[in-house]
Amino acid sequence: MFPIRDHNPSSRTPYVTYALIAINIAVFLSYYPFATNQAALASVFANWAMVPQEISSGQDLYTLVTSLFLHAGWMHLAGNMLFLWIFGDNLEDMLGHAAFALFYLASGLGADLAHWAADPGSAVPTVGASGAIAGVMGGYLLLFPKARIDILLILIIFFKVFSVPAWLMLGLWFAFQVVNGYGTDITGGGVAYWAHAGGFVLGFLLVIPVWLRLGGIGFWSRNHGQPPHPEAKYVLTKTRIPKVVKRN
Length: 248
Hints:
By secondary structure, the chain is mainly α. The chain contains ten helices and three strands, in the order βαααααααββααα. The chain has a three-stranded antiparallel β-sheet with strand order 1-2-3. Strand 2 (148-155) and strand 3 (158-165) form a beta hairpin.
């Protein structure tokens, strides 16, 4: 189950969201040629990925930021950019461009520190924008708990797209991170669950002042927990691909 779009259009061009997506893609392409050379790729991650053990010793603190722009593969990158694309524009719309950029970096730093706190002695490199994007999701949940999210549900050979409120989709996502964080070691089979959970909580907390300025519970009541503007409508149309009739 993963989101494919929301029904929450933004009122201004999300320049920072676009820039973050472009930077992440550009950074990945800069070292992608090393993907088949494990030694070269390991060198890239050794220099720029966040390693809890090194942070504990006060070394390479800059990796708390640089690790946010590294990804382990195409699917890792694509998944993160999809989530940023869906949720980033609306939060940028509410916070403003500069504030959103600072919010994104703060969420990413908080996510990295949450991952470090889970196991300060770990020597496993950590990369990915997912902690910062989790912060965006936490802020989105606070402001638009009932915004409609279209999700794609895949059950073996069953595919279905349907809409759910943001609180359900994001709440389940957060619960999944916490449950798996407790159920696995820090590496989580390659997933930094505590970074996700930490980023989400920090993003939620950082947006509370904005939510209060908008009216808090009154803001929810006025808009019924939905965006303060008409939601986007999507109409499914029939495919133009002709049907192929099987002849006996």
